[in-house]
Amino acid sequence: MNELKSMWATIPPATQEDLAGARRRLMDGMSPRRRRFAATPRLAVAAGAAAAVAAAALVVGTGTPAYAVTTNPDGTITVAVNELRDPEALEADLLAAGVRADVTFLPTDTWCAETPRFDSVDGAYGGDKPHERGDEKGWRSFRATKPISQRELLISPQHVWPGETVVLEYSETPAGPAPWQLGTWLAKAGSTVKPCTPIPRGKA
């Protein structure tokens, strides 16, 4: 302790001029023109733009993305849906990713009436139960789309031929392990997908 007192005793007190200079240096360091983060490197901008193309999302009022569309390195596309909102925006993002899609978000326990809405590329759509998948694993509709979790769908564009449309129907469920039921099909090239007419689930 005595050594510290002796050391401080050798340091002369600061003058008013010294204090004013220190204040100027401090203020200069806080000036916005001195902030290093104000300038963004070009590489960072390019990387941000590439990331925006690879993953598109619609953010709802809660701050949680309603959905996200991600292009994977192998060319597949992952669609993650958190809330059934703005199907038109999801269609636009899928088109930007290279897949034409028709997306419908339905009220609880309803599905689209079969009029039929479109001409299917295979038997996955049609018959007495048009919204249920069968055991026919060779149907291209099943290879083009594959649920990978309760909220995620994997789209494989190599199984979607030019001009075809991926048809997605999400129907909310009041209870159960999944927040909704999902029907996926492929409409033939040149086939117009008609607007959905919601009807109670179980009715044709």
Task: Note down, in words, how this protein is organized.
With 204 residues, the protein is of the alpha+beta class. It has one domain (57-200). 25% of the residues lie in helices and 25% in strands. The protein contains five helices and ten strands; from the N terminus they run H-H-H-E-E-E-H-E-E-H-E-E-E-E-E. It has helices spanning 2-9, 16-30, 42-54, 87-96, 140-144, and strands at 55-59, 65-71, 77-81, 101-106, 110-112, 145-147, 152-155, 165-172, 180-187, 198-200. The protein has a five-stranded antiparallel β-sheet with strand order 1-2-3-7-6. A three-stranded mixed β-sheet has the order 4-8-9. Strand 8 and strand 9 (180-187) form a beta hairpin. The chain starts with a helix and ends with a strand.
